[in-house]
Design a protein that fits this description.
The chain has about 210 residues and is mainly beta. It is built from three helices and 14 strands. The strands form three sheets. A seven-stranded antiparallel β-sheet has the order 3-4-5-6-7-8-9. The longest helix is centred in the C-terminal third of the chain and has 10 residues. About 25% of the residues are buried.
Length: about 210
């Protein structure tokens, strides 16, 4: 069932809940060897329908769940930028626009599978029903997304890092202001030699100390 350009998903199933709440892994999707974590939920009908993800390659992605039934669940994921999402939230572009003229993946989770499969696609080659309804905008209430817009604006001057706690070895993605980080050329396999009790963060090529 579709609602305002999106299908209402009354029973998305256990996958999102299990992936988001898992203490072992925060990875929601994997596309082209890039791990994605949940970021901001923009449209939510019981479960996230339109949301952003952060990738361990330092990039931002936007995803939409366009189909779910007892046999499978399907998403479209597009590479995007903080500015592009801000334009979406401010009704400067339509809901469909972020998924056009951008790297795009179709993600499918079939019944019985533990993790979805992602395939690179072209917007012109997929069925139009997979995309948000043409001409639809967010139509948000005044101030509804002020907090998200402020956070996205700050990311334009930030770098995405993976923060690792030395003791628990748990990792989380965080945007750190570029002016507050020092790039240190240390090989990842030397991490075990770092002193205990400190928090370090690294991107895909370097370790970064957050000040």
């Amino acid at each position: 069932m579709w609602t305002g350009g999106y299908m209402k998903v009354p029973n998305l199933g256990s996958f999102l809940r299990k992936q988001i709440m898992s203490k072992k892994s925060n990875i929601l999707f994997r596309i082209d060897s890039v791990d994605l974590q949940m970021d901001m939920v923009l449209v939510d009908y019981v479960y996230p329908v339109l949301f952003t993800c952060t990738g361990d390659n330092g990039k931002l992605y936007i995803a939409t769940c366009y189909w779910t039934d007892g046999d499978k669940k399907e998403w479209l994921i597009a590479e995007t930028t903080p500015r592009r999402v801000i334009d979406l939230l401010q009704d400067k572009i339509t809901l469909r626009d972020p998924f056009l003229n951008a790297p795009l993946w179709q993600v499918i989770l079939k019944r019985g599978e533990d993790f979805p499969t992602a395939v690179r696609v072209n917007a012109e080659d997929i069925d139009l029903h997979c995309l948000p309804t043409a001409g639809e905008y967010m139509d948000a209430d005044p101030g509804e997304f002020d907090e998200e817009i402020q956070a996205l604006a700050s990311r334009e001057e930030s770098v995405l890092c993976v923060i690792i706690d030395y003791f628990s070895r748990k990792s989380t993605y965080q945007f750190v202001p570029k002016t507050n980080v020092t790039h240190v050329l240390i090989r990842k396999d030397k991490y075990s030699e770092l002193s205990g009790g400190e928090q370090k963060c690294f991107n895909t090529s370097k370790l970064i100390f957050a000040t």
